[in-house]
Automatic annotation (TrEMBL):
This is assimilatory sulfite reductase (ferredoxin). The lineage of its organism: Bacteria, Bacillati, Actinomycetota, Actinomycetes, Micrococcales. GO terms for molecular function: 4 iron, 4 sulfur cluster binding; heme binding; metal ion binding; sulfite reductase (ferredoxin) activity. It catalyses: hydrogen sulfide + 6 oxidized [2Fe-2S]-[ferredoxin] + 3 H2O = sulfite + 6 reduced [2Fe-2S]-[ferredoxin] + 7 H(+). Belongs to the nitrite and sulfite reductase 4Fe-4S domain family. Catalyzes the reduction of sulfite to sulfide, a step in the biosynthesis of sulfur-containing amino acids and cofactors.
Length: 570
């Protein structure tokens, strides 16, 4: 592999790998790598995962739990294997964030579930959308959130209703299979796959193949930890590939034509780390085998002793990209991958918001529900509206947005107006466009802080307070505001211009109040910064929920006043 494939991120990651060896270091404990240390389980999760594959819980849900109710559910199934079918218990209502760390898990949970509908590539028809909408209104109290991994999540699900929900989803080729758990999660795909004028390569056949061949395969259903995949052939690099375990990014090889650039080992939360290029060019005809090879490396060599060190990024950190590529080629593929070029910096943002012409002369319209929050009623109305305007296809995006496909030119403006009436704006403000929020305290057992309403309130306030900067042309680029309800990173705070990590903050009178730790200056390739990078935690900088609009207004006004030569926020 040539040195030119080593990116800045790779250099930073390499530096972390080259710490000097300590003399008299005690013998290292085994990492729990199946191919090195054997398959003896080294923690409780590994024990129950080996005792009974998570996928097997479906039969018990259908035959026992749905008939006998919540109280009949075995504890390990409830808190472990249910995830393999996209089910988590949701937070009991009314428990404030200060109690999250002190209560036992069973005291925090409700007898209702969050159910995650897996949407590989984000590809939906209006028929499928209507089914999700109807499930929401009938079984989920009209709840629905579009997530930043192209899934749709419903809440308030009773175990009694799960078999019927599966029947309805599977009748339209949707599922909850491996939507959570230590498995290959939903495959992120470019929301404009197959339709964009400037597409390098269409990943749709590959995403279909991976989904059909490998999702639900028991051989790949006990990985050390979750495993995230992202695939795009669009030059905007619109699938946040740098924070996935496995990613393919469309690129043109000077001799071999269009294919993919291979990235591995990205992930946020504990020890956030950007993925690295392996410097290998992956043609479409071997891409599925390469995915299987990397996934198998993770299964066989991934670390299973400590769950906090189990993501693929820790193995990549120790091996480095050269060794990783060599083992992939020698032990899994049986052939060498050609060296390949890096994809150029994206020419446009990758959120696809707005009105754009497709390669067939029709149009696609990207719209922004506020922080992904919709409802079953909205989803059903959306299906009706799209069909009335002559289209049946849409996509979810990794930015909590929707993209409507195949709109004839003479239907564009009337459709945009009707979408707007549903709260789905094709021309959102800079803040509505670029703010995302995780589930937060409304439903998440780990949450400390409310997120969705906090974000919606901040957006409305910032639209009002900063209108002057937008109107006079000072502020032209979206400023990404990402809001998390706890120290995890479901809303990718390290990759935002302004990232907010939920925590309780002390007040002068001694009563803790909900607030955020601030991260500044992150961004990925598809944002408006020069290159991907993780934001800095500003240690002393914390802001209460109530003061959030004041804080963001101050930061943005200062940026606008100090900015030189159109420099970006990052
Ligand atoms: Fe829950 Fe924390 Fe993830 Fe938000 S970031 S959804 S609060 S685990």
């Amino acid at each position: 592999m040539t040195s030119s494939v080593v990116t800045d991120a790779a250099q930073a990651n390499a530096a972390a790998r080259t710490k000097p060896a300590r003399a008299n270091r005690p013998a290292a404990k085994p990492h729990g790598q199946w191919k090195v240390d054997g398959t003896t389980p080294l923690n409780a999760n590994e024990t129950w995962k080996q005792e009974d594959n998570g996928l097997n819980v479906r039969e018990r849900i259908e035959q026992i739990y749905s008939k006998n109710g919540f109280e009949s559910i075995d504890g390990t199934d409830l808190h472990g294997r249910f995830r393999w079918w996209g089910l988590y218990t949701q937070r009991r209502q009314g428990i404030d964030g200060g109690k999250t760390a002190t209560l036992e898990p069973h005291e925090l949970e409700d007898k209702y579930f969050m159910l995650r509908v897996r949407i590989d590539g984000g590809a939906l028809t209006t028929h499928q959308l209507r089914v999700i909408g109807e499930i929401s209104t009938e079984f989920a109290r009209d709840s629905a959130d579009i997530t930043d991994r192209q899934n749709i999540q419903l809440h308030w699900i009773r175990v009694e209703d799960v078999p019927e929900i599966w029947n309805r989803l599977e009748a339209v080729n949707l599922s909850t299979t491996e939507a959570c758990g230590d498995v290959p999660r939903v495959i992120l795909g470019s929301p404009v796959a197959g339709i964009a004028k400037d597409e390098i390569i269409d990943p749709t056949p590959l995403i279909h193949e991976l989904s059909e061949r490998f999702i639900g395969d028991p051989e790949l259903a006990n990985l050390p930890r979750k495993y995230k995949t992202a695939i795009t052939g669009h030059p905007s690099q619109d699938v946040v590939h740098e924070i996935n375990d496995f990613a393919l990014v469309g690129v043109v090889h000077p001799e071999l034509g269009a294919g993919y650039d291979l990235w591995v080992g990205g992930g946020l939360s504990t020890n956030a780390r950007l993925a690295e290029r392996l410097g290998a060019f992956v043609s479409a005809d071997v891409a599925a085998e390469v995915w299987l090879g990397v996934t198998s490396i993770f299964r066989d060599y991934g670390y299973r002793r400590m769950r906090t060190k189990a993501r693929l990024k820790f193995l990549l950190n120790d091996w480095g990209p050269e060794k990783f590529r060599q083992i992939l080629q020698d032990e899994y593929l049986g052939f060498e991958l050609p060296d390949g070029p890096a994809a150029p910096k994206p020419p446009t943002p990758g959120d696809h918001v707005g009105i754009h012409e497709q390669k067939d002369g029709k149009f696609f319209i990207g719209v922004a529900p506020t922080v992904g929050r919709v409802s079953g009623t909205i989803l059903t109305s959306l299906a009706d509206t799209l069909e009335a305007h002559g289209t049946t296809r849409l996509r979810t995006t990794p930015h909590q947005k929707l993209v409507i496909l195949d709109v004839e030119e003479d239907h564009v403006e009337s459709l945009v107006a009707e979408l707007d009436a549903l709260g789905l704006s094709a021309r959102p403000s800079l803040f509505r466009r670029s703010t995302i929020a995780c589930t937060g305290i409304e439903y998440c057992k780990l949450a400390i802080v409310e997120t969705k309403v906090t974000a919606a309130t901040a957006i409305a306030e910032l639209e009002r307070r900063l209108a002057d900067l937008v109107d006079n042309g000072t502020l032209t680029q979206p400023i990404a505001l990402h809001i998390n309800g706890c120290p995890n990173s479901c809303a990718r705070i390290q990759t935002a211009d302004i990232g907010l990590k939920g925590m309780m903050l002390p007040t002068p009178d001694g009563d803790p109040t909900p607030g955020f730790q601030v991260h500044l200056g992150g961004g990925l390739a598809d944002s408006n910064r020069e290159e991907a990078g993780l934001g800095r935690t500003i240690r002393g900088l914390k802001v209460t929920v109530d003061n959030l609009p004041d804080y963001v207004e101050r930061v943005v006004r200062q940026y606008a006043a100090d900015r030189k030569n159109n420099e970006t926020f990052a």
